[in-house]
Amino acid sequence: MTGPADDLDRIMAVMQAAFDPAYGEAWTRRQVEDALILGNCYHRLIAPNGQPPAPGEAACGFFLSRTGFEEEELLLLAVIPSARGQGLGRKLLDRFAADAKTRAARQLFLEMRRDNPAGALYRSFGFVAVGERLNYYKTPDGSRLDAVTFSYQLK
Asked: Which end of the chain is less packed: N or C, by CB atoms within 10 Å?
């Protein structure tokens, strides 16, 4: 796993607080751990002051991404509810884009459920909807939700 040993714990704590269980969007600890072991997935944590948290300090947000040839996909981005509206999601997106550029990415992608309120953040950043997958996500209660794919061209 990349990063300090407690990063996985901090990611999972943020995920538990940030994702509504009704949608089934949160990843399991094993899924996150496996992604980080692969070597083409990256993460960043953020503290309330907008900086990386100090060792042992709780995080209030994170992103997890996967890189490929000239592109990077945002797999997860989360900020705990009590820290929302303070610009931390935007700071995480800025860091995601900057990190992706250092890995020679030219384009960013993300996918989310159609009615996800985070869509406003992504659109304000410059992401544009480029596709959809009907009935793509299955919620814990068995209902199906559409997914929207977004793209952002790095400059």
From this structure: C
Distance CA 120, CA 127 (A): 10
Token digits for 100?
């992706």
- Pair 109, 73: CB distance under 8 Å: yes
- The answer to whether the beta carbons of residues 36 and 1 sit under 8 Å apart is yes
Rounded CA separation 150/119 (Å): 9
Cα–Cα distance for residue pair 127/96, rounded to 1 Å: 13
Residue 134, H or E segment: strand 128-138
Q: How far apart are CA 116 and CA 127, in angstroms?
A: 14
pLDDT (tens digit, 9 = 90+) per residue, 104-123? 999 999 999 998 999 999 99
75 SS3 class = strand
Token pair of 84 as six digits: 């929302």
Give the Cβ contact number of residue 96 at 10 Å.
Answer: 24
**Separation between Cα atoms, residue 104 and residue 107, nearest integer Å:** 9
**Which pair of tokens denotes residue 131?**
């596709």
DSSP single-letter state for residue 39? S
Cα 46 to Cα 13, 57, 115, distances in angstroms: 13, 10, 25
